[in-house]
Design a protein that fits this description.
The chain has about 200 residues and is an alpha/beta fold. Helices cover about 40% and strands about 15% of the residues. It is built from seven helices and seven strands. Helix 4 links the parallel strand 3 and strand 4.
Amino acid sequence: MSVTPKAVGRLIEALSRLPGIGPKTASRLTFFMLRIPKEQVLDLAEAVQELREQVIHCSICGNITESDPCPICSSDARDHTLICVVEEALDVLAIDRTNAFQGVYHVLGGVISPMEGVGPGDLRIQELIHRVEQGGVKEVILATNPSLEGENTAMYLSRRLQPLEVHVSRLARGLPVGADLEYADALTLARALEGRREM
C-alpha cells in the first residue's frame, strides 16, 4: 500500500512525461506546488487550460497563434516573397528575436526521421510546396537545425523545390552541429541568416 496520496502520484506521473523532466524533478515540482499559495497553483492550471483552448496553428505558416492567420502572415510590413522554413514554432521565436529577418515563416512541425517513423507526409511539406506554387515567392531559406535529420530534411526540401524555379538557400554555418536553433544567441542567428548560401 502506497503512502503517497493518489493526487500527488498522478501529478508526478503527469509532469514526468514532459520533455526534460524526470521522476525526481517531477517530484520536486509537485512538492513545491504543495508549499506555494493555492492561488499560484490555480493560476498555473488556468494558464495551461488557456494554452490548450486559445492557441491554434496558423493555417498559412503553421506557427502558433491566437488568431488565424497569424500576425506575421497578415502583416503588410513583412516581405512575403521570402519564406524561412523552420522545424518548430520555437525556432520562429528564436529567429524573429534577431530582427535580422523580415520575411515570413513556414513551420514544418518536425524533421524527416525514419528511425522515429516520421516521413515527409507527416510534416507540412506539401503546404510549403503549395505556397510556392501559388507564385510571388522569390526565395526559400531552409533553417532546419544542423543535425543529421535537419540536414536530410533540408536536402529533401531542396530537391522538391528545385523544379519550382525558386531560389533556395540554407542558413550559413556558424550554428554548432547538433544544436537547436532555440538555444542559439541572437548574434549567431543573425550572422547565420546574413551568410546563408545556395543549396
